[in-house]
Design brief:
Elements lengths: L7 E3 L2 E4 L4 E4 L2 E4 L6 E9 L2 E16 L4 E8 L3 H14 L5 H14 L10 E9 H6 L15 E9 L7 E2 L1
Parallel strand pairs: 7-8
Antiparallel strand pairs: 1-2, 2-3, 3-5, 4-5, 5-6, 6-7, 8-9, 9-10
Length: 170
């Protein structure tokens, strides 16, 4: 029986020590509208390439009072994306409920960026999904999720301050 996922940011990766699972920064591939990028993540188990997951991403900017922020929204709200993530769960043989798994996987997907030191501005990484698609995929107990005005739900996010002095991981 496996332990529930619990990713911690490490240099260029997110690692779950207990389950011996690591996710590395994704390969970036141009995507077609409405997306900007496709993130192709590799997942390793016991130091061997085990799985992969590709997710579409939008890249936008938000202007604050004193600074601007680049925002990458990683879309885990399509049926295909949720199915791919749940296939990863099955392949890894993890026993936690689907929603807990999706949240922890999402934490790993954004944690890989926590050690960035090449940014001159604030960068935010957000993984979103939709309750409608979760329910359609058989994910139970979505009542605890906070639904945003556009119907999306934030599963995880990470903020990387300028020059990589990362200190916020949600």
């Amino acid at each position: 029986m496996s332990a529930p996922l619990h990713f911690q940011p490490q240099l260029g990766s997110a690692v779950d020590e207990e389950n011996r699972i690591a996710i590395y920064r994704p390969r970036l591939v141009p995507a077609e509208a409405p997306y900007d990028i496709e993130y192709q993540y590799l997942i390793f188990k016991n130091d061997k390439r085990f799985e992969g997951i590709a997710l579409f991403v939008t890249d936008s900017w938000a202007q604050g009072r004193n600074s601007s922020e680049q925002i990458f929204v990683i879309d885990l709200s399509t049926a295909q994306a949720i199915d791919s993530a749940l296939d990863v769960k099955s392949s890894l043989g993890l026993m936690e409920d689907d929603l807990t798994f999706l949240r922890e996987l999402s934490r790993g997907l954004v944690a890989v960026f926590q050690s960035r030191t090449d940014n001159a501005h604030v960068v935010r990484y957000i993984v979103v999904t939709s309750v409608e698609q979760l329910v359609a995929r058989g994910v139970r107990d979505t009542s605890q999720l906070e639904v945003l005005g556009d119907g999306r739900v934030i599963l995880a996010q990470a903020v990387v301050p300028p020059n990589g002095s990362a200190d916020e991981y949600v």
